[in-house]
Specification:
Length: 196
């Protein structure tokens, strides 16, 4: 089984990086083949310019984007790790979807409507927040973020979301709680294996 982990965090010492490492290690322990795309370390260009905007609708995909698409094609599982920034994902992660999940690769339009072309793939999402669950859940911010990602992007492209795990209050928790939450990350990864 092939796993592609996509990390969007500028700080390699961040909790997000630790989540990414924990998930990567857990998959490797299970003998999965793991590839990682660390968008900041790669200097990924997230901006869909006029030129690539045209590419989005035509079939002239730039070489750097073709390379990303190859990795997605290779992967059985996609794992996305990112912090909440302004009630959504960081721009670099959003730009990854804008530029890599192109029409004709990730989806196409038919007479019956849009068709997801990444069917058969499954995804795990690990999203950290600064705010506590009790602040984000009652005004439905968590649900809105989850729907936009899981339905608006994953489901639209035919990808089944196995889990969208929020790790709350990361800025306020102590070292012990951080460790407990990293174990929860591993448990989520463990669940993936059990579904095979
Ligand atoms: C630009 C920016 C915007 C943010 N917006 C939110 C937000 O809308 N909601 C929230 O709960 N936390 C927000 N935060 C806090 C981050 O989500 C939090 O610092 C991060 O999840 C902690 O993980 P890290 O230590 O790996 O960075 C924001 C942080 C930054 C830098």
């Amino acid at each position: 089984m092939n796993v592609l982990i996509i990390l969007a965090h500028p700080n390699p010492e961040s909790y997000n990086a630790a989540i990414c490492d924990a998930a990567e290690q857990e998959f490797k322990d299970k003998q999965y083949n793991v590839r990682k795309r660390d968008l900041y370390r790669m200097n990924f260009n997230p901006v869909l310019t006029e030129n690539s905007y045209s590419h989005f609708y035509q079939d002239k995909i730039p070489a750097d984007i073709q390379a990303e698409q190859k990795d997605i094609t290779w992967a059985d599982f996609l794992v996305f790790v990112y912090p909440t920034w302004w009630s959504g994902m960081p721009a670099i992660m959003k730009g990854y979807f804008d530029r890599v999940f192109t029409n004709g690769f990730a989806f196409r339009y038919s007479d019956e409507g849009p068709v997801g072309l990444l069917k058969g793939k499954q995804a795990l999402i690990f999203q950290t927040t600064g705010l506590p669950e009790k602040v984000l859940k009652p005004p439905q911010i968590t649900m809105a973020m989850q729907a936009a990602f899981d339905i608006g992007i994953m489901d639209f492209c035919g990808i089944e979301v196995l889990a969208h795990k929020f790790l709350y209050s990361v800025e306020y928790i102590d070292e012990e709680t951080r460790k407990v939450m990293l174990n929860e990350v591993k448990e989520v990864v463990e669940m993936v294996g059990q579904q095979q």
